[in-house]
Amino acid sequence: MSQEWLDALDPQSPFGLEALPFGVVLSEGRGPRLAVRLGEQALDLAAVSATTGSPHANLFDKGTLDPLLASGRAVWHEVREEIAEWLTSRRRAASTRPHLLPLAGRACAMPFSIADYVDFYSSEHHAANLGRLFRPGADPLPAAWKHLPIGYHGRAGTVVVSGTPVVRPSGVRLAGDPAEARVGPSEKLDFEAEVGFVVGVPSELGIPVPIDRFEEHVFGVLLVNDWSARDIQAFESVPLGPFLGKSFLTTISAWVLPLQALEAARLDQPPKEPAGSSHLAGHAGHAGHAGSGYAIELEVRLNGSVLSRPPFETMYWSAAEQLAHMTSNGASLRTGDLFASGTVSGPAHGQYGSLLELSWNGTQPVELEDGSTRRFLLDGDEVAMTATAPAPSGCRLGLGEVTGRVLPARPTRAAPA
Amino acid sequence: MSQEWLDALDPQSPFGLEALPFGVVLSEGRGPRLAVRLGEQALDLAAVSATTGSPHANLFDKGTLDPLLASGRAVWHEVREEIAEWLTSRRRAASTRPHLLPLAGRACAMPFSIADYVDFYSSEHHAANLGRLFRPGADPLPAAWKHLPIGYHGRAGTVVVSGTPVVRPSGVRLAGDPAEARVGPSEKLDFEAEVGFVVGVPSELGIPVPIDRFEEHVFGVLLVNDWSARDIQAFESVPLGPFLGKSFLTTISAWVLPLQALEAARLDQPPKEPAGSSHLAGHAGHAGHAGSGYAIELEVRLNGSVLSRPPFETMYWSAAEQLAHMTSNGASLRTGDLFASGTVSGPAHGQYGSLLELSWNGTQPVELEDGSTRRFLLDGDEVAMTATAPAPSGCRLGLGEVTGRVLPARPTRAAPA
User: Fold this and answer.
1) Is A279 part of the annotated catalytic residue set?
2) B389 and B285 within one domain
3) Is residue A8 part of a domain?
4) pLDDT (tens digit per residue) in A101-151
5) In this complex, do B236 and A148 lie within 8 Å of one another by their Cβ atoms?
6) Which of A126, A217, A289, A325 is catalytic?
7) Given an 8 Å threshold on Cβ–Cβ distance, is A331 in contact with B247?
8) Long-range Cβ contact pairs of A288-293 (< 8 A, separation 24 or more)
9) Confidence band (pLDDT; 50, 70, 90) for A210?
């Protein structure tokens, strides 16, 4: 084993051999190509398998992660081993190296087809912050919050890949003082830093997926920016929850990190008080909860200024609990289901995952490095989220970044040509 | 023109030549077949076009409505004319007749692939009934209710075709007196009678679809039973809305009626007081609202007893307004998007579209013809919904029925084999 030929790979890169996330890159004249990321390059999997052969060639040549997602855990692990072999074997180097494509200036496509998109609300710090903001004096957490992971379905059709522009949405929003319903562009456009989980293996309608089957069904992890128009959301959400305040756009990272890469990042979740509901217990009882947290450290930058470093390990409800809950009523899973954690906020101000919290609903503007301040996002602002987690070597590995720049609202009466 | 050869067609059938809804029937050995329904038979479109030729053969042979949905309004109308010609031309009879398949004992498949599923809440009577039940003494309508059509995203992956069994869901629900959170099978399983609209032509991300473009995008109409576990829903819904109380199953009719068949059913909606929000105005201003209601009469039966006859014409928000609202923030449409009206309830008790309203949250049990009573659904209960609307001839045409039988809850710790 040798990787000396991988001379282009920065040894400090969070996208070294321990990460190997999957994505789809666009290649001139050859359409979308399934790839793994290595540093600032992408290895074209179909091109390698076409020259050297692979038992998994039919999973690589569709220009999407979909067939690999559906193939199940044993194949996920085999494919990861096979790709590592392509990258590290001296014998393989000559046939692998020509298929490393530079990422600079190259667009990525959606890595997989989104089936259903569910968004949870599983950070206690985030939920309590929102309670303090909007229900001062009352219990900051909703009554059900510690009984189950609260969540809702979002719009799968407007989940887009990192880099897609974010047109400021218009709608009926609460504005003015006293606040009343007015139509116009959102004045409280916000981001939410989240971690998303991608379902590979479907489940049967009517049969809950127990907590200890999490790794049989979930392929991997990505970053999510759940863009939110707080003023639209505030007006529309009673009693059926967020709708247009969220559905205009949700951005995911272009790279999906297999769960297997995160083994060294696993840790116990914060203790539950009171204990979680019995409908989430695994076959091994609550032991199923141990090690279901992940030590993922997020970073949120606005126009280059670091705004926040949300720690995913502080989440109260784990992804395994979310999956068990989501199916506890018999709802089935499909390949490509995406479920996100909800805004990741730690206990400290510099760990909040939204501007709503960082600016305390606009009352405490946040200062950027250029001296300007923000209550909410302005046109032209670019939000970038990245994350790293411990790798088996003791180094850190990366989750792909999720970025988006805000464009001005379009005229509200515009129509297709 | 002659239809004398259509001897099997009951002249009183609501599925005569003025209806011609599309669906997918299962055929032994030949897989799913796209068909139109004619009385109690289904015409296999690919089989006819294979023997006689058709400019639309490539829309008929995929065993799903998906390609026809995407083909646009001009083609929708051409195809409807072509099929009517197949059925009514004496010259065509010999080649058409052999491809009429009896529906008795034949299963239907999902007629199309659901992209996103949105459920609205657009009956003022229903929303006000729920307000009176759960917020007595307060304004029965939520603050935003008359400003915009309130809605939320449901789970597309658990939308199933009529006839699919309904396994009673389990979950964390409010039960006992005083009510507290307990895990177990729902004790308040309910139906909701709704009308759903199917999007054919997609729209561009960031560009709202104005109200007067409704018929460019929407292919047709079907019936929806939005099964609801009221006790699960009641506990989980603050602040993000319904989730597991709805996501276990939503049933649609097997037959999709093209909008074109409903021209004679169009009528003005109830007047708006105050006027609807300006973000819903069409390019012709509020004139776009005229004629956007539909005189569809629903009927709900439980084990054969008629429980209710909800009148769709009483809906406050129209489907055109719902579509305009749903895209007013720039959210795009995809082929196969399904949006439902919300429970259709008229002003009178016999017009309520849910057991929650009919039994007034279980306090006034409903009596069936066999003398038994219901507060909510029991295991073994079968709910059947049908609907008719005025046809151009002055007769009535039908929307396909949506049925489902309740099966007992499964053990909560069951796991896949």
Assistant:
1) no
2) yes
3) no
4) 999 999 999 999 999 999 999 999 999 999 999 999 999 999 999 999 999
5) yes
6) A126
7) yes
8) A288/A210, A288/A211, A288/A212, A288/A320, A289/A211, A289/A318, A289/A320, A289/A321, A291/A266, A291/A267, A292/A211, A292/A214, A292/A266, A292/A268, A292/A318, A292/A319, A292/A320, A292/A321, A293/A266, A293/A267, A293/A268, A293/A269, A293/A318
9) very high
The ipTM of this complex is: 0.95
Mean pLDDT computed over A63-70: 98
A&B contacts, CB < 8 Å: 222
Residue A12 lies in a domain: no
Measured between CA atoms, the residue of chain B closest to residue A248 is B331
Query: What is the least distance, in Å, from the CA of B231 to any CA of chain A?
Result: 12
Q: Which residue of A has its CA nearest to B145?
A: A236
pLDDT digits (tens, 9 = 90+) for A14-59: 999 999 999 999 988 889 999 999 999 999 999 999 999 999 999 9
CATH of the domain at A89: 2.30.30.230
Confidence of residue A311 (pLDDT cuts 50, 70, 90): very high
Question: In this complex, do B240 and A151 lie within 8 Å of one another by their Cβ atoms?
Answer: yes
Q: Which residue of B201, B235, B240, B279 to mutate against A (max A Cβ within 10 Å)? A: B240
Q: Judge: B333–A157 Cβ closer than 8 Å, yes or no.
A: yes
Q: How many Å lie between the alpha carbon of B398 and the closest alpha carbon of chain A?
A: 30
Distance linking the first and last C-alpha atoms of chain B: 58
Q: Which range marks the domain in which residue A185 is found?
A: 117-407
Least confident of A88-97, A118-127, A328-337: A88-97
Average pLDDT over residues B202-207: 97
* Closest among B415, B417, B416, B413 to B185, alpha carbons compared: B413
In terms of Cα–Cα distance, which of A399, A68, A72 is closest to A262? A399
- Express each pLDDT in B65-107 by its tens digit: 999 999 999 999 999 999 999 999 989 888 999 999 999 999 9
Residue type, A41: Q
**What's the structural domain count of chain B?**
2
